[in-house]
Amino acid sequence: MAEEISFDQARERIDELKVLLDKYSHEYYVLDQPTIPDEEYDQLYRELVELEEKYPTLVQNDSPTQRVGGSLLEGFEKVQHDIPMLSLDNAFSKEELQDFDRKVSQILEDQPYTYHCELKMDGLAVSLKYENGKFKQAVTRGNGSEGENVTANVKTIRSIPLSLKEPLTLEARGEIYMPKSSFIALNQQREEQGEAVFANPRNAAAGTIRNLDPKVTASRNLSVFLYSLAQLDGKEVQSQSEALALLDDLGLKTNPERRVFESIDEVWDFVEEYQEKRTELPYEIDGIVIKVNELDNQEKAGFTVKAPRWAIAYKFPAEEAETLLKTIEWSV
Ligand code: NAD
Question: What is the 3-state secondary structure (H, E, C) of the chain?
Answer without folding.
Answer: CCCCCCHHHHHHHHHHHHHHHHHHHHHHHHCCCCCCCHHHHHHHHHHHHHHHHHCHHHCCCCCHHHCCCCCCCCCCCEEECCCCCCCCCEECCHHHHHHHHHHHHHHCCCCCCCEEEEEEECCEEEEEEEECCEEEEEEECCCCCEEEECHHHHCCCCCCCCECCCCCCEEEEEEEECCHHHHHHHHHHHHHCCCCCCCCHHHHHHHHHCCCCHHHHHHCCCEEEEEEEEEECCCCCCEHHHHHHHHHHHCCCCCCCEEEECCHHHHHHHHHHHHHHHHHCCCCEEEEEEEECEHHHHHHHCECCCCECCEEEEECCHHHHHHHHHHHHHHC
